[in-house]
Amino acid sequence: MPNNTFNSLQKFKVGRKTAQFYSLPALGRSLGIDMKRLPVSIRIVLESVLRNCDGSKVTEQHVRELAGWKANARRTTEIPFVVARVVLQDFTGVPLLADVAAMRSVAERMGKDPKRIEPLVPVDLVVDHSVMIDYFGTPKALGMNMQAEFHRNRERYQFLKWGMQAFNTFGVVPPGVGIVHQVNLEYLARGVHHDAKNNIYYPDTLVGTDSHTTMINGIGVVGWGVGGIEAEAGMLGQPVYILTPDVVGVELKGELRGGVTATDLVLTITEMLRREKVVGSFVEFCGPGTSSLSVTDRATIGNMAPEYGATMGFFPVDDRTIEYFKGTGRSNEEIEALKAYFKAQEMYGIPRASDISYSKLLTLDLSTVTPSLAGPKRPQDRIELGKVKDTFADLYSRKTAENGFNQPAANLGKTYTTSAGTEIHNGDIVIAAITSCTNTSNPSVMLAAGLLAKKAVEAGLKVPKRIKTSLAPGSRVVTEYLTKTGLLPYLEKLGFAVAAYGCTTCIGNAGDLTPDMNQAINDHDLVCAAVLSGNRNFEARIHPNVKANFLASPPLVVAYALSGTMLRDLMTEPVGKGKKGNVWLGDIWPSNAEVQALLSQAMDPDAFRANYSQIKSKPGKLWQQVAGVQGEVYDWPESTYIAEPPFFTDFGMRPAPMPQVRGARVLAIFGDSVTTDHISPAGSIKENSPAGVWLKQHGVAKQDFNSYGSRRGNHEVMMRGTFANVRIKNLMIPANPDGSRFEGGETLHQPDGSRMSIYDAAMKYVADGVPTVVFGGEEYGTGSSRDWAAKGTQLLGVQAVIARSFERIHRSNLVGMGVLPLQFKGQDSAVSLGITGEETFDISGIENGITPQQDVTLTIHRKDGSKQDVTMLLRIDTATEVDYYQNGGILPYVLRDLLAA
Hints:
By secondary structure, the protein is of the alpha/beta class. It is built from 32 helices and 34 strands. The strands form 11 sheets. Strands 26-29-30-31-34-33-32 form a 7-stranded mixed β-sheet. A 5-stranded parallel β-sheet has the order 6-5-4-9-10, sandwiched between helices. A 4-stranded parallel β-sheet has the order 14-13-12-15.
């Protein structure tokens, strides 16, 4: 029977039918609280706590605490959030499935029923991260890239097919359908769910194993990205625990000016909110400007919440949401239920800023937003379009510490020639990609790109042949409306033919440049550029040899491809020469009226229904030809893609004693903004890297290496790839004579000081029984949600990561893998304390038990025999995280819970 905590189980009308719901207004009356003053996002989480109140994991006290949320209270309590579903992509989903399969293997070996390990909420995995841009610039590229994808990833797809038949609630959206977040927005999201047994409606909520899961916030769904290890716990019946958050209100006023895109808006918001330090907060949009934004514009803003550091960027349900559900082919019953439910909860409509008590209220006038790009190394570094040329020229010779490239200014204008006779210069664009979930879900910017391409072709403009161009729509519906409006042929003429339906260039699956281009870039240390409509542009993410990466709207991607260089000011200089002379950006930039005239073609309910019906009826011949292993327990055949993970080696029902950190050595010292891409790269595997050497030893040819992301189901590859990014800078390695830092995953093994790969040094320490620690600066672990950044750290024997500050998901993942996150206090840092890597370290203060966010002591033993005690903040934030750490991590904790049942 469902609970009726605080007499909150009430009735409401859905059309002509009567149904039940957990009424927040009724809860407010019972507790004497004005629910309308709570942020809408908090209310949706509160509904889940109320509905799942079982007196055990979720208690009445949890309900009272969250219902009594105060805008500026000290955050010490945790919320047990039970989600309606879980969404995965294949790079993070495959290792998650491997962990769950390993749990079943453990259960079988212990004589328990393997079916005890079963997702208790629906889990959808969308295969979108595997396809690479090997072929481009031709309509045949899509088919050729998919053939290559299936050839490389057959073992992974066989494993996914095993999962589909082994678990009752695990579904897969096969390759070639679209990007997970757009598929989630257009198809998987239900708005509200219906428990038919008890006739109860409740809101759609989720977590996903991709940081950009927050795109779903654009349609009023509460959800965010978590690491795979946390998602596993959620899908196996554990609440997702979070500290009660601050909620920052962002009041939008006015309207966007003509020629300004949603991409320009989200880059402005990212810059603003990163500056306001909203890390770990919910961000909720309100005000009249919010009401003016389309759902796809809202989704673009929600998508980039990780880039501005928020847990999510949330938009309440309103008439625009209903319009979107109608336009994407949802059923009349679903739409009727969505509207009736949110009206019954008194949560329908965009609130005014004065309606809600926010922790902080910020305001942005939409009319002040200007055309912009972001780069060359971080998404929050916005540059107005008219300043791009000068900014690039300035950064070219600035020091690396100042976000520059540390190159001689005299080389900026030089011409170089590749061995194939192609002229190339610093600042030249070599990759231009319309890609990623952020923008390809938004028809206004996609149609603008097509219209700009049409005008450019008609004016006689061409894209230089050296540029690798690609179009990777977020779903097949995008191709359909670009075809229907007659714009796709113009994009194809400029090289932007559909090359894949997947993340591609945005996650480093750009494919390689030509050998002569690679050689010229490396021989002359050229700073060439990529321009993409993505959300991430961290160093070496897009391509290891492309140092400058700029985020831009799809039409600006086309415009910059036409110009061929970052050293042309598109506001004051022509884009290029056409049939009748110079062509300026204003000549080819589409008007808002031109875009609006075509938008109706993009929201065709029949097209959406027809497209997504094919997932089950016509999943594609390549997918149908993949044969999966049968049975409840995976048999772990020999594979360089999938291997039984070692996280349950020597597993027992009693946790091992907590490790004591004594005499630890430093594995690496890093500066600020070390991303999860730096820690665990997703892109190409270098032949001479530890991972490349291991693959060759196991008979894998270089052309079949694939990528780190696609091999996340094999721990042998991934632990060798940890800290192996070609752009990572370990401050233990002495600086070059010019002051620049060595880039690459190397370290100095102590006490002998010999230089080697971080992996090799880690294995020597493990063999000698020496614990290790890693030091970092501000925003350690920013970027993707990838759990392998924490898993790899743990497998290298690292006991603690000590940093100035942590990004939310990575800190949680470290705790989930049994690695201590310690945070410096005040102005302390590895640099200010003079830490070089020659010291040894003890960590004390947790021997007799742990309390959340307690102080611990880091004792530094220096080479000269002196020692220093430094007080640190233990970033195990909640009581639940204490349990996880004491169990050796979240996975052993959950497995013990399931097997003890």
